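Encode chain A's predicted structure.
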Amino acid sequence: MSTSAEGRVLVSTHNLQRAGELKSAFEEASYTVDLVTPDEDVSGDAPIELLVITGAACSRSAVNLREQARNLSQAPSFAIVDDSESALHLGADYLEVFSIDARADEVVFVARSVIERRRLQALAGIVGETDAMREVLERVVQFAPVSSTVLITGESGTGKELVARGIHHLSSRRHNPFIAVNVAALSDTLLESELFGHEKGSFTGAIDSRRGLFELADRGTVFLDEIGDMPLATQTKVLRVLEQREFHRVGGEDVIRVDIRLVTATNQDLKQLVATGRFRKDLYYRLNVLHIELPPLRRRREDIPLLVEAFIADASRRHDRSFEGISPEAMEILQAHYWPGNIRELQNLVESMVVLAPGREVLPKDIPSEVRGETTAGGALIPVGLGSAQAVEPSTDQGYRPELEFVFRTLVDLRMDVDDLRQEFDSYRDGGPTGTSPAASFPSEPGKVEISVRQPVGTMQEGSWETGEHVESVEVEEVEEVGRPVVYRSGLTMEDMEREVIVAALEEVKGNRRKAAQVLAIGERTLYRKIKKFGLEEETD
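Encoded structure for chain A:
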């Protein structure tokens, strides 16, 4: 077998004709390709980047090849299926499923995106498989080859510098310097000296001439973090660098020309800073040529197990400590936490667990009380609206029922339409259109709340859950109630609740997973994973 420093694409010979077509298409795209027989051992010196099964995707031989690829290199698998095979049932086992009529170049196009995304994750250390993170990674792959400026936004701790490094590593500048500067950490005078350099005697303490970071990064990439904290005077000089590719050292007269790519990041709203006069409008538009927004950790909870695994491996290696891992119950707690500090907070917590619990499994009792939701204010955290980026504050209402808080958090995680719920609650409070009272609409049994799975006929934008505040109305077509009600009772876990909602949705759409995913407002692949996780395959067959 051939080898490659970047890895190889394996194509099975279940369908010899399709295998030959795919091999030629991948080689035209400059990939190293090996044809493998159904019963072949695929181990080798080079890693595997992708496995394509050209037929009999459910056969034992295909399963063996897929397991080998996953065990050796964590490589994803594609499947080419004919009409006799159900693509629906393969969604949980294969990353992508194509019909037998799919063109070879279409398969290669999708494969290129997957392979480049995996290479980026390996280079930059970016971990994530949710739809939100895949979108981020795809943007990085798209933006990297060009030289346009990139603005990365997101809350503190979401990994903005990792994304910036990923852009640099995939660009043509990857063999030249990558220099990161935290603007907020430097005073006004020191920032200019660091960026542009200075001449001898230009200010007190300048005992010698010094080149600035822009000069040192020539033909490379400069990453300016917390760009929103940059003083206005420095903004003017940075704008000149972007427009003219030239600047003067502090106290110097000579023009210095550089070829750099600028990547910036901020956790602030630059538009608001522009409106208040704290940030130059022309610089904002110059920086915001290409834009990447990083989701907070609470919007990508499914990535938490992957992140924990990666952080455990890193901390165990650095501290030379064995670690048994985390119990399923403890992992549920981590996934339910709000994580105001995002990935940085999670990483620090995992490192502390590796240090404090060596050689044993972490249990729920080992997790800090604030992460478990045991706050001094009376309990867990109140859920935040889907569109809000503000931190959740502990509940100050001592009478707030934990059961209802749990239900609301579940509704948010399932992305149900909170604006519609608000309208319905308002209707109940006012007596309802038919004169029914709230007491008649809701069960009186303590700890029991009935939820109906709803499918909007029209389109509605996600709103926020901010009790007591006015929310702008949005035009929505009639919303019809579908499926059986899902009943929450005290003692049910989040997984129990999630399973019931998924079952109810599947029953309503008669097992059509695509429609069920639309009803639940989640991705199809996410639904496939949850169906497999809850053992619902037989119920949906």
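The mean pLDDT is 77.
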